[in-house]
Design goal:
The chain is α+β, with helices and mostly antiparallel strands. It has 9 helices and 18 strands. The strands form 3 sheets. It has an 8-stranded antiparallel beta sheet with strand order 5-2-4-3-13-14-12-15. Strands 7-8-6-1-9-10 form a 6-stranded mixed beta sheet, covered by helices on one side. A 4-stranded antiparallel beta sheet has the order 11-16-18-17, covered by helices on one side. Strand 7 and strand 8 form a beta hairpin. Helix 4 crosses helix 8. It is globular.
Length: 366
């Protein structure tokens, strides 16, 4: 059974109830979906594993002490290489410059696709699969680099602020586009965005087909009532800051496809908490405080990239999300500073593996 569709409804019914009070769009759209440019300006950063000790103070403040910071968008993801921290400008002020902190130079804007209440679709898939053909593929064709952050509640598509005019002109035929500002949703058209209709005019290049890794971990995607966050504070601090000291790492790893990898993601965005962890980490938390979809589904990871991917290549998300959409397979997608990660339902991992192997063979012969 696939993850139930209430994941988006849970988030949207609480955060976008005001969305449809604005009916200023005069030209009708063929779609029943709206695209929101959220009211956050984000930085994408990376903290080295051995430099984490220099940042525990601000990170604890950002995670647990919401009344002491004006940060509204915070996400921390641990991978074997580093910690990726995505946060708004208020949160970024908390991180002091350091040799252990890498900062991607751009300002990123989060986009969110929402149903305007009239959508009817035969597809049961959710997550990045839902937006692969309507958002991810068109942006890739226009050479817009995206950084994905799926959470328990919704899927955020991060684009560079400087690409916003291209994003709007590319997507406005398919979506009613709104910009969130001070709690209001203001309709946006390409003429409203600096840069106008100018699209990226480069010829479409055949994207690199990156190698993938499929670790053995089983993952859970969960949420938590923010009021109960103090109840899991010591466990969360232990898992985030003390569970992977260098001396605990095995001296040598077996074949990567047979191994488990360290991956833990915590997001606190506009008051909503999302957690992605493997079942081993999940067992350390009180079972009655974390909640997931009614099916309690487990997920398997596809990690994309043999070498760090960088931020300028376009089409990486599309390369994975397009075949998943063709097969109607749900997926969460979490980009990090070095690599990308898709989570697919456990029962689909064999077909996804076959699909990606076929994709690689096709790329090798073309």
């Amino acid at each position: 059974m696939r993850r139930v569709g209430c994941r988006k409804a849970f988030f949207l019914s609480r955060t976008h109830t005001h969305t449809h009070t604005h009916s200023l769009c005069t030209d009708p759209r063929s779609t029943n979906m709206d695209l929101h440019i959220l009211d956050h300006r984000l930085r994408v950063t990376s903290i080295s594993k051995d430099g984490l000790v220099n940042f525990t103070h601000p990170l604890i403040k950002l995670i647990f002490l919401r009344n002491r910071t004006r940060c509204k968008f915070f996400s921390l993801t641990e991978t074997p290489e580093n910690y990726t921290v995505v946060l708004d400008e208020e949160g970024f002020k908390e991180l002091q410059p350091s040799e252990h902190l890498k900062v991607e130079s751009s300002i990123w804007l989060p986009l969110n696709v929402v149903s305007n209440g009239n959508a009817s679709s035969s597809s049961q898939a959710v997550g990045v699969t839902k937006i692969a053909k309507s958002v991810i593929a068109p942006l890739a064709q226009q050479h817009v680099s995206v950084f994905m952050l799926s959470t328990y509640q919704t899927d955020f598509i991060l684009v560079r602020e400087k690409d916003l005019s291209v994003v709007v002109s590319t997507l406005e035929e398919e979506f009613n586009i709104y910009k969130e500002s001070g709690g209001e949703s203001v309709p946006v058209h390409c003429q409203d965005v600096s840069g106008g209709l100018q699209k990226n005019g480069k010829e479409a290049l055949q994207p690199t087909v990156h190698p993938v890794l499929i670790p053995q971990n089983h993952f859970c995607v969960m949420s938590l009532d923010p009021d109960t966050l103090p109840s899991i504070a010591t466990t969360l601090i232990d898992v985030l800051f003390y569970s992977s000291s260098p001396k605990e790492e095995p001296p040598s790893s077996p074949s990567p496809d047979l191994d488990c990898i360290k991956f833990f993601s915590f997001s606190l965005i506009d008051g909503y908490i999302s957690l992605v962890m493997d079942t081993e980490a999940q067992r350390r938390f009180p079972a009655d405080l974390l909640f997931t979809s009614s099916s309690g589904e487990l997920w398997r990871m596809v990690r994309i990239g043999g070498q760090p991917l960088g931020f300028d290549e376009c089409g990486i998300v599309a390369q994975i999300s397009q075949p998943l959409a063709d097969s109607d397979i749900s997926a969460y997608y979490i980009s990090t500073f070095s690599f990308d990660h898709a989570l697919v339902p456990e029962e689909d991992i064999v077909s996804v593996t076959d699909m990606l192997q076929h994709q690689r063979k096709e790329a090798a012969t073309s």
